[in-house]
Amino acid sequence: MLSLASARIVLGRLKAPASLRLSRPLVMTAKLIPSRTLTQKANSDDELFNFSGRWVYNEGLRLAERRRVFDVAGLRRLAAESVGRNPSDIVSLSKLGEGGFNRTFLVTMRDGFEMVARVPYGFPPVYFTLASEVATMNLLRSSGVPVPQVYGYSPGSDNAARTEYIFMEYVRGTSLNDIWSTLELEEARHKVLSLSFSAGGSIYYPHDLDGLVARRKPIPLEDGRFCVGPDVNPIYWHGRRSQLDVDRGPYASGEEMLVAPARKELAYLKQFGRPLLPFHRMRRKGYRYQEQSPSDHVANLHNFLRMVPSLVRGPELGCFCIRHPDLREGNVIVERSTSSESGSWRIVSLIDWERTTILPKFLQESVSQHLHVYSAHSSLNPPWGPNATPSLPKNFDQLSEREQARAEDVYRRRFVNHLYVHSGCPWMGESLDMKVSLIRAVENWEKLTARRRKADRLLQLFQIGSHIQLGGKAVDGCYKKAMRYCQEALKGELEDAETDEERANIRAHSKDRQVSFNRGVEIQRFRD
Predict the structure, then answer these.
(1) pLDDT digit string, tens, across residues 272-325
(2) pLDDT at 76 (0 to 100)
C-alpha cells in the first residue's frame, strides 16, 4: 500500500505555479450541446439532414459533423415495417429534436399512431453506441424500469435508409422540465441501481458483437440474451482515440476499469501527443499564451496509476451496476395520475440511455447527475458533480464520530470518482487541473486511505482467525499462510502507529501475543 510518505515522494514536485492558478477547473463533458426541441412542422429533405444550432467559432466544421444524409423514403419504409404497417400509412416525418449525438424524428400514421425515428450524426463509435443503447433499454424494460419500447434498429448503414437508426415508442407526457414538481424518483432510481452485473463495460446483444470484438471476449450476463462488451463512454473514442488499439473492456474487476481511461490517454499521447495551446481560449492567459507539452500530463497519469491500489481495494472492486448517463429533467417524462384524487405526477418513461456504461459501484458518481434524489443523509451527502473537487462538510469537527466516518467515506468515494474523470478526459493542452487534484489527494492522503486501511485490517483479522487456533497453533497445512497474514497485520499496525513508543510496544508484544478470536474478530484491542 502506498504510504503518506511515499505519496508525498511521488508527487513532491507537483506544485501549482502562481501564474497558472485558474479560477475554476474545466473538464470536457460528453454532452457538448443541450437538447433542442423544435416545432413539429413539415421539413424539406435538406432540413432533415442539417443541424439548426449555431456556434461562435468553428461553425462550419461543427455543422458538417452533424450533417447526416440518408434515404428518406427508405427510412419511412423501414419505420412502417417495424410496426407492421405500410409506407403509405405514414402521413409525415418531421424533425422532433436535436441532441449532442443524434437527430430525432416524429413519424405520424394516418390513424394517429406516432413513433420516434432516431438517426446518429456519425460520432464514433456509432455501431457500438447504437447497438448498446438498444440492448440496454430492452434489458431495463424487462426489469420493470419505465423506458420506451424499441420497435426496430440497425447499428450499421447497410439498409434501405443508408443510415444507422433506432425506431422506438413515442412516449406522450410532460417532461419534468415543464412542471413545478417535487416528484419522487427514488423508486425508479432503485430499480436501476438494484440491477447487478458481473463485469464493467456496456450492454449488447451477443449477435451484434459477432466478429467485432478481438481484444476481449464479451462476458455473458445471467439473462443469456445479453452480454457485456466494449465501453461506449466517449472518452475512449474522442478524435483519433477511436483509432487506438487499447483496452475498452469488458472489465472483470473494478480496478481494471479504474485505470483503463488513464492508460488509454497515455497510449494516445505516446502516438499523437504534441505541444498544444489550451483548447479553451479564455484560459490561455494563465499559461502565458504558450504551447503546453503533454509531458506534464503524462507524469500526472503515471502518478495517478501509482495511487490506484491504495485508493480502492476489497469487495467493492467486483460489484457493478448502471446509472442513467444523463439524468436531467428533460429526460424524465411524467403524467398526472388519474387514480388519485390529488392528481399527483407519476413517471411514465426515462429516456435517452445512449452511451450507458456499467460501472463499479464506487465509480457511479463519475456519471454527472443534473437531477438529484435527496436522502435522509443529504446534509452529509450533498449534490456533487465529478468535475468539482470534493470537500468534507464545513461542520466536520462538530459531527459525531459516526457522522464523521460517514462523511469521510463519502469524501473518499467522491475523490476517487473525481480522479477517475480527470484521468480519462482527453488532453486538451492543459495539465494543471489534474496536477492540482493529485496535490490535494496527497494533502488529504490520511482521510482518503484511513478507512480503507481499517477495512483491510479487519479482513486480516478474519484471515488470521481462520488459520490460527487458540494458543498459536496453525491449522494443518496453513502454516505459511498464517505466518504471512501475521506479518502483514504486524506491518499494518506499525504503519498506523503514531509514536515511537507505540511502535516499540507493538514489536515487544508481537512475538508472544495472546490473542482471542470470536468468529475471526479479535477480542483483545487491535488498533485500526
Answers:
(1) 999 999 988 788 888 888 999 999 999 999 999 998 888 776 666 668 999 888
(2) 97
The model's pLDDT over 112-152, given as tens digits with 9 standing for 90+, comes to: 999 999 999 989 999 999 999 999 999 999 998 999 999 99
3-class secondary-structure state, position 150: strand
- With CA atoms as reference, report the closest residue to 165 among 211, 212, 131: 131
pLDDT at 78: 98
Residue with cell 459501484: 361
CATH placement of domain 31-170? 3.30.200.20
Whole-number Cα distances in Å, 397 to 65, 310, 445, 451: 52, 25, 18, 17
pLDDT tens digits along 429-452: 998 888 888 888 887 777 666 544
Of 346, 365, 356, the closest CA to residue 146 belongs to 346
Query: Domain-by-domain residue ranges, the chain?
Result: 1-25+274-312+374-443, 31-170, 452-522
Q: Measured between alpha carbons, how far is residue 299 from residues 11, 305, 375, 386 in Å?
A: 10, 10, 39, 22
Q: Give ∠ CA 250-253-255 in degrees, rounded to 5.
A: 110
CB 316 within 8 A of CB 417: no
d(CA 40, CA 97): 9
